[in-house]
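FORM 12-B: Structure-to-Sequence Request
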């Protein structure tokens, strides 16, 4: 039986023996430090590791505070990583080496005080005039994320400072918005904010003054499409029409959620984009195209009377009495 007074020394001896036989390649990285902060993320770094073989090895980053913890996995030859921090609190970080069968000893704990979280805002907002009274806003997603991106909040102000809330886009992939009913010669100030699970960003802004526009033939548009579920009104026509016939039809009784084809108009912004558009479509094998009707308020149209089939679809940009068609795309609606 070991006397109690000797137990601490025995433990130290056992730890020393363990260290002698410890797998050298599972030793923790050294020199853990912070390189800087960007938005809601922190870049941490450590000294390079030398491995005889990097197969089945990863570097594990553990970050925690007094309430929660996070784990990140990076390649063994990595020497820095950008990870999300826990805002406005002390953050504790360690790094270690792990294989599929063994976990190495963690590094010494590195402690830093995290700043308040900054929600990254959208990038490169541009306002493009369409016709006499419309503007198409286009922007890019934030460079880095602040939690899950939920969408965008869009507003504009006129010269008298009157503010109008346009919309909250719940689709993070939508980075365009059409605004109509504006007046020539008046400065308009547009703003777009990021909405994420962590909050709302500061706005990115753009100013435009609409100039007089003389109608002419639009340049050739293009379009994107996706299959979605919707309960919006049916915008399809029951009668065929040519691309020169611009008709409007809304079936107010059709509000049942169903599968639809969403067609997003991409006007040519380097030339004359037009100020509104329509969608033409037909089933493969049919001779006559059907027309969706003109759209002036949005940059997309939902076609809800499609059935499982192959279709031919194109869009038509319109400016006054002039119009121009895109190329036809073959779409399988299933």
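FORM 12-B RESPONSE
SEQUENCE OUT:
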């Amino acid at each position: 039986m070991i006397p109690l007074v000797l137990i601490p020394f025995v433990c130290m001896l056992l730890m020393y023996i363990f260290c002698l036989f410890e797998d050298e390649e599972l030793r923790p990285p050294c020199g853990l430090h912070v390189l800087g902060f960007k938005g809601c993320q922190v870049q941490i770094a450590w000294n390079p590791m030398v491995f005889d073989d990097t197969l089945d090895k990863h570097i594990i980053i553990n970050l925690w505070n007094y309430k929660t913890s996070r784990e990140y996995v990076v390649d063994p030859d990595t020497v820095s990583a950008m990870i999300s921090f826990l805002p406005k609190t002390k953050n504790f970080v360690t790094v270690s080496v792990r294989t599929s069968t063994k976990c190495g000893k963690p590094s010494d704990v590195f402690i830093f005080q995290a700043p308040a979280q900054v929600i990254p805002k959208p990038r490169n907002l541009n306002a493009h005039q369409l016709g006499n009274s419309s503007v198409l806003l286009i922007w890019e997603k934030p460079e880095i994320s602040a939690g899950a991106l939920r969408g965008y909040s869009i507003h504009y102000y006129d010269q008298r400072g009157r503010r109008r809330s346009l919309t909250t886009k719940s689709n993070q992939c939508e980075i365009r918005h059409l605004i109509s009913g504006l007046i020539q010669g008046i400065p308009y100030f547009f703003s777009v904010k990021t909405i994420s699970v962590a909050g709302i960003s500061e706005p990115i802004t753009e100013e435009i003054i609409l100039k007089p526009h003389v109608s002419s033939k639009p340049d050739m548009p293009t379009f994107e499409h996706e299959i979605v579920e919707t309960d919006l009104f049916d915008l399809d026509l029951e009668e065929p029409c040519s691309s020169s016939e611009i008709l409007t039809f809304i079936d107010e009784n059709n509000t049942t959620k169903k599968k639809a084809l969403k067609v997003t108009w991409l006007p040519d912004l380097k030339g004359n984009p037009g100020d509104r558009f329509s969608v033409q479509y037909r089933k493969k094998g049919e001779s006559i195209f059907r027309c969706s009707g003109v759209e002036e308020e949005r940059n997309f149209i939902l076609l809800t009377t499609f059935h499982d089939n192959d279709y031919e679809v194109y869009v038509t940009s319109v400016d006054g009495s002039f119009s121009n068609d895109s190329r036809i795309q073959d779409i399988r609606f299933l």
